[in-house]
Amino acid sequence: MPTTLDARIVFSLSLPFVVGCSAAARSEAEPPGPVAWRAHPTACGAIAEMPGPVRERGMQEGPTYARVAWGKDVDGSRYEIACFDLPEALDASGRAEMLAQVERWISTPPGTRIVERRRVEVSGTPAAELRLALPDAREGRYRNFIVDGQRLFEVSVVGPSGDALHAGTERFFRSFRLLTLPAEAAPSP
Hints:
Layout: H1 4-27, E1 37-41, E2 46-51, E3 55-61, E4 64-72, E5 78-85, H2 92-107, E6 113-122, E7 125-134, E8 138-147, E9 151-160, H3 163-175, E10 177-178
Antiparallel strand pairs: 1-2, 2-10, 3-4, 4-5, 5-9, 6-7, 7-8, 8-9
C-alpha cells in the first residue's frame, strides 16, 4: 500500500487538471440557446444527467490517470464528473486523509467558504459532500469519494447562486450512479 504522502504526491500532480477544467468553466463561451439535458455515461465508469454538449478529456500525470466529463448550462453552471486512478489502493486511513486533503484544496481559494459539510452515500460508497459559497455570487456542491481504494471521484456543480442551480444540482446528483458497483458495495454471493 502506498503511504499517505505517496498518495498526496500522486494526486497533487493531477489536481491542476481538474482545477484547470473548473477554471475553464468561466472562460469558455456560453453555448447558444437552451441546452438539452441527457444521461451521459463517462469514461470514469459513471453516468449522470447533464446539460449538453458533454465534453470529456483525460490526462496521464506520472502514475495517475485523470479523466473529467463536464457539461454547461445556459447560465454557465458547470456539471462535472472527475476521477483519478491512483497507482495503488489506499487503506482506510489513507482514504480518509486523501478526502480531507481534497476538501482542503477545494475550500481554501480566496473568497471560498464551506457552508455545509455532510456524509452521504453514493452507489453504496461513503462520500463527503460539501456546499461552498464562492466569489462573484456563485456556489458549488461537491461529492468526493474513493471506490475500491483506488479511484477517487469528484462529482461537482459550480454556478451562479439561485433556484436554477439548486434544481440542476438536485437533478444531477439524483441521476448520478456508478456503472459498476464497487467491490465494497457489491452484495455477497
